[in-house]
Amino acid sequence: MKKISAEWDNPLFKQVQTQFEEAAALLSLDDNIFYRLRIPDKVLIVAVPFRRDDGRVQVVPGYRVQHNDVLGPCKGGIRYHQNVNLGEVSALAMLMTWKCALVGLPLGGAKGGVQIDPTPLSRAELQRMTRRYTAEIAHFVGPNRDIPAPDMGTNEQVMAWFMDTYSQIQGHSVPEVVTGKPVVIGGSLGRKEATGRGVVYTIIEAAKKIKMELNSQVRVAIQGFGNVGSFAHKKIEKIGCKVVAVSDVNTGLYNPNGISYEALREYVEKNNTLQGFSEAEMISNEELLTLPVEVLIPAASEGTITGAIAKNLKCRILAEAANGPCTLEADKILNQNPNLFIIPDVLANAGGVIVSYFEWVQDLQNFFWNEKEINERLWEIMQKGFHNVVKMSEEKKVSMRMAALMTGVHIISQAMLTRGLYP
Ligand code: NAD
Fold first, then answer.
1. Cis upstream peptide for 150 (omega within 30°)
2. Does the beta carbon of 90 sit less than 6 angstroms from any atom of ligand 1?
3. Which of the four pLDDT bands, split at 50, 70 and 90, describes residue 7?
4. 165 CA to centre of own chain
5. pLDDT tens, 337-372?
6. With contact defined as beta carbons under 8 Å apart, do 89 and 82 qualify?
7. Which of 104, 170, 143, 132 shows the shortest CA–CA distance to 378?
8. Does any ligand 1 atom lie closer than 6 A to the CB of residue 231?
9. CA angle 375, 381, 383 (to 5 degrees)
10. Residue 248 CA, closest ligand 1 atom number
11. Who contacts 1 (Cβ-Cβ below 8 Å, separation ≥6)?
12. At residue 89, does pLDDT exceed 80?
C-alpha cells in the first residue's frame, strides 16, 4: 500500500493491518473488500484550543476515525493520552469494526482521541478541553452516525460534558450521542463495570475449555488498575479466585496471599496511585507480567507484552483486556506455546461495547432496563461470541486471535457484498 500519511506509520496500525491481511488471506477475501477495509472510511483531524487555568491557550491535536459503518452507526471510545495519533486511533477503530461484528452488534468501528496527558489538568481545564474537542467533531458524530464512549484517560464525567456540549449545539438533550455516561443523565446500569466483567466472563469460558477449576488456588495478575483492570479485579474476587498482583503506569504490587479489591480501591481513591500501598510488596510492570500465575490480564495499554516478555510468560490463560497488548513478535512466540490459552482483545474486552450498545438502545427508546437484565444479556452475548470464535479456531485450525478476526471480517465482507457498491 502507498504510504498515505507518515502518521499512519505507527506500530499498532501496522500490527492490526498485518493481522487483517492474514485473516483476509485465510478467508480468500474479495479483493475490492480487502482494499476498502485496510484503511478507514473517514478520518477527521482537528485542532483543539483550550484555556489553561493560568490564562494561556494550549492547542492539542484531536482525532476521530470511522473505519467502517456497513452494519450500522460507528462506535468507539475516546482516548486522552500523550501518545495518541492518527495511526493509533485508526488501528483502534479497525479493531472496533471486527469486535462489533464478531459479537453480532449492529454497529461499525470508530475511535477518537486527543494527544494530551490528562493527569496534570485541573477539572476545569479537562472540561474546557473536552467541550472544545466535542464542538470540533460534533458535525462528524451523532446518534445515527458515530457514538463515542470512554477509553483510556476518559471517564463518565468526560462523557457527561461531551453529551452536554453536543446537546447545547443541537438545542435539545441528546443522551444517545454518547455512551458510558453517568446513570443520572441516561447512562446504563452496569456500563462502568461491563468491560472488566466481560473479561472475567471469557475467563470463565476459557477455564471450562482447558478444564481448569476456578477456585482460591487460581492466581491472577492484572496490569492496569483503571476502569477495566479495577472492575476485572472486583469480579475475579467475586468468582473466588485470588488477585496476587496489580499495577499502574508507575508501579506494581505483589502479595502471594492476595490483594483485596476494596482495600486497594479505597487507597487509590485517596492517593491516586498504587505507590505506598502497604499490604503488598512493590514490583515492576515487567515482573508482574512474568509472575507464576494461572491467569494474566493485561488491562493497560498496547504493546506491553513484547517478544522478550512473551518468552517468559508463565500463565495458562492470557485474557487481553487492553487493546493490542501483544506485539506481533510476542504473538508469534505465544502461538507456539501449547499450554497457553489466549483470549484475544476483540473478544475479551467486548463487554464494554456490548453494554454501550444496550445504553444506546435504552436511550433511543427512553426505556431503561434493570442491572440483572443487562448482566444476563451481556453474559449471553459474550458466551455466544466466545463459542463462535472457538468453533472457527477448531474448524480452520487457527489461533484464537485469527479466529476472532476471521469471524468479524467474514461478517463485514458478507454485509458489504450484500449491500453492493454505491453508486
Ligand atoms: P484507564 O485510563 O481507566 O486505566 C488505564 C490503567 O493502565 C491505569 O491504571 C494506568 O496507570 C495504567 N497504565 C497505562 N499505561 C501503562 C503502561 N504502559 N504500563 C502499565 N500500566 C499502564 O483505561 P481503561 O479504560 O481501563 O482502558 C485500559 C485498556 O482497555 C485500553 O487498552 C483500552 O483501549 C481498553 N478498553 C477499554 C474499554 C473501556 O470500556 N474503558 C473497553 C474496551 C477496551
1. no
2. no
3. confident
4. 24
5. 999 999 999 999 999 999 999 999 999 999 999 999
6. no
7. 104
8. no
9. 100
10. 11
11. 38, 39
12. yes
